[in-house]
Amino acid sequence: MSEVRDAIARAGRLVVKVGSSALTTAGSGLDVARLDALVDAIADRVARGTQIVLVSSGAIGAGLAPLSLGARPKDLATQQAAASVGQLALAHAYAESFGRYSLTVGQVLLTANDVVHRAHYRNAQRTFSRLLALGAVPVVNENDTVATEEIRFGDNDRLAALVAHLIGAEGLVLLSDVDALYDGDPRSGSTRKITEVTSESDLEGLSVGRSSSGLGTGGMMSKVAAARTAAAAGIPVLIAAAEQARSALGDADVGTAFTHASTRMPARRFWLGYAAGSRGRLWLDDGAVTAVVRHRRSLLAAGIIGVDGDFQAGDVVDLVSPEQVVVARGVVAFDVTELPELIGRSSHELPPEQRREVVHADDLVPLRRRR
Ligand SMILES: Nc1ncnc2c1ncn2[C@@H]1O[C@H](COP(=O)(O)OP(=O)(O)O)[C@@H](O)[C@H]1O
Ligand SMILES: N[C@@H](CCC(=O)OP(=O)(O)O)C(=O)O
After folding, report:
1. Which helix (H) or strand (E) holds 288?
2. One-character DSSP codes across 183-234
3. Homologous superfamily of 3-269
């Protein structure tokens, strides 16, 4: 058994995420038999003392049939209407299903705004911790009905990775209609199963696509992105089929395991790097990229060649290289209106009140290259 599967099998606190494609069927909506089978596996693990937060998609899929909608709608307003109807059905089905084991569920609907603001992030943290302490199973989904295009997570894989860090989970299990990551979409021909991802090089050359069932949102692409985010933050991740939930939560050799970083990323750094919303961009020259990314130094005005966005001192901004790659994120110490006359100038050329770092090293998180 791999180290990741072993860690998940022994974890005291887990996030399990299940996708629409594993819970709903095109045409007939929510599949209660499949939902019950998933709940059987989770309840078994809860009975053995593990605290589980379930991130469940499926609201839109479950809302289609009651509204006489055929395929998944393309426009946001109809998706939101379907989610509004479907979320109620989904929550009801979970309450009934966990009820078979005398387990109580608590619904937690989150928008991206609830985790990009640090105070909200802490509030959500407190609610989860209380629900778990009271023995309930939190069932999470994106708050689809109030999320606009700009403030959407967009996919629950990302939401699950954020929640996993937020609650201090010791493992993240992403369950879908496919049993693992393959080197190409298994629906479109012969492909090779990837059982372990131990480094970035294991992901090179793979063709990782969008959902082809028409039910899911992000496809394997968003699962891999979420797995990389959580693994980099120190959380073991397993991608597996919902049908194999019991094995995935046990110690069987199923799915694709993502080896996690050996140290857990502190909450503030994780929030900065992955959760917080960016209000603008600072364009760096090559020297500044090296200083910030390789030497973990503060960003000074002299290394900045351009600024855009609408930010104030204290907001989070992206730091972008001359190759247009976001190389880091950090909390900026100036308003956007102050910076144009400072950038490119050395500290000794600046008036004393402006002689400070633009982004202090303590408020800065270098990012790995994005795919
Ligand atoms: N390289 C790949 N390996 C596995 N699945 C892939 C790959 N590329 C694309 N996919 C597709 O991603 C789908 C799973 O994503 P999605 O439908 O969004 O699931 P969910 O609803 O569970 O989030 C699979 O059914 C598969 O068709
Ligand atoms: N919040 C939406 C699901 C969004 C989503 O990420 O779906 P999926 O790719 O199936 O995990 C819903 O409940 O329908």
Report:
1. helix 286-289
2. SS-GGGS---EE-EE-SGGGGTT------SSSS-SSHHHHHHHHHHHHHHTT
3. Acetylglutamate kinase-like (3.40.1160.10)
Ligand-binding annotation for 57, yes or no, is: yes
Q: Is 113 annotated as a binding residue?
A: no
Q: Is the CB of 255 under 6 A from ligand 1?
A: no
Q: What is the DSSP string of 63-120?
A: HHGGGT--SPPSSHHHHHHHHHHHHHHHHHHHHHHHHTTT--EEEEEE-THHHHSHHH
| Residues facing residue 299 across a β-bridge | 359
Cα angle 38-229-20, degrees, rounded to a multiple of 5: 30
The predicted structure's pLDDT at residue 371: 39
C-alpha angle 104/110/112, rounded to 5°? 160
Q: Residue 310 Cα, ligand 2 centroid: separation in angstroms?
A: 30
Q: What is the CATH number of domain 278-366?
A: 2.30.130.10
Query: Angle at Cα 155 formed by Cα 312 and Cα 239, nearest 5°?
Result: 125
* Amino acid at residue number 59: A
Closest CA to 160 of 351, 3, 19: 19
pLDDT at 264: 83
Q: Euclidean distance between the first and final Cα of the chain, in Å?
A: 29
Query: Which of 212, 221, 222, 239 should be mutated for ligand 1, with most atoms under 8 A from CB?
Result: 212
Pairing of strands 24-25, 29-30: antiparallel
The reply to whether 222 sits in an annotated binding site is yes
Domain boundaries, the chain: 3-269, 278-366
Whole-prediction pTM: 0.86
The secondary structure of 332-351 as a DSSP string is -SS-TTTSTTTTT--GGGS-
What is the 359 CA–ligand 2 centroid distance (Å)?
36
Which pLDDT value is given to residue 239? 98
Joined tokens for residue 200: 């970035």
Q: Which of 6-20, 145-159, 231-245 has the lowest mean pLDDT?
A: 145-159
The CA 357 to ligand 2 mean position distance, Å, reads 41
